Amino acid sequence: MMKHLVLAAALAGIFSTAALADDRYATRPPVVLSPDLTAPWINQLGGTVRPVVYQRPVVQRQQRGLFQRRVLRQAPQAAPQTVSAIKPGIPSIRNPIEPQFLPQMVDYDTKENPGTIVIDTNNRFLYLVMEGGKARRYGVGVGKPGFEWAGVHKITRKTEWPDWTPPSEMISREAAKGHYLPARMDGGPENPLGARAMYLGSTLYRIHGTNAPWSIGSAVSSGCIRLRNEDVVDLYDRVNVGTRVIVM
């Protein structure tokens, strides 16, 4: 008799617990999901609870790297508008340059006529002679040791976003160092001649832009005179074919 009573009590307890469970989940609160799809997958029970939104972490990147990726995505034909939009004379955070190599108006005593270009390779300056004893001065990169030269020429040709065909001597010289140059490179932001080129006489020398603006103020070229792209665009627009160029 006692065993029957114990079994009956156990069964009653089970049915009672099941009834309570059914009652507990009869009306469930709504499930609220975080609106931020990048957040961890979290369910929050209860309509009065505010969903948790996790902020996406901010990753700091080098400014110069971001700039290069943006520019390199552009087609070469779109690049001149990009470069022309940069105002000459304003330092670039992406490519810091010493202040004396930024374009500026200076006093300049010379017998050369206004419009003449005078390049002081020792001090790394290019002067565009102006009226009234003034000149517009730009910082330049010049020929490395063994590639210095001096002379007087005229600008015989002007080109926007020039192609580059390295001379065979340069290709052989660089190959000996383990640097392999292309036989030809189309104009564009990666091209070593940069945004503009002004050809000097019948020589292989040019006044041109660069894809390495940090080299301005240094002796690093194979004899050409290089300027920052924003500066060579400014100079290009100020001079014509036939302009006298003095390199000293």
Shape: globular
Strand content: 15-25%
Report the oligomer.
Answer: single chain
Instruction: Please provide the ordered H/E string of secondary-structure elements.
Output: HEEHHEEEEEEHEEEEHE
Q: Quote the average pLDDT.
A: 74
The CATH class label of the domain at 98-247 is Mainly Beta
By CATH, the topology of the domain at 98-247 is L,D-transpeptidase catalytic domain-like
Please count the helical segments: 5
Secondary-structure-based class equals alpha+beta
**Strand elements, count:** 13
Largest sheet composition: 9 strands, mixed
Q: Which spans of ≥5 residues are poorly predicted at pLDDT below 50? A: 17-22, 31-75, 77-93
Q: What labels would you give this structure?
A:
alpha+beta, nine-stranded mixed β-sheet, two-stranded antiparallel sheet
Task: Describe the structure concisely.
The protein is α+β, with helices and mostly antiparallel strands and 248 residues long. The protein contains 5 helices and 13 strands.
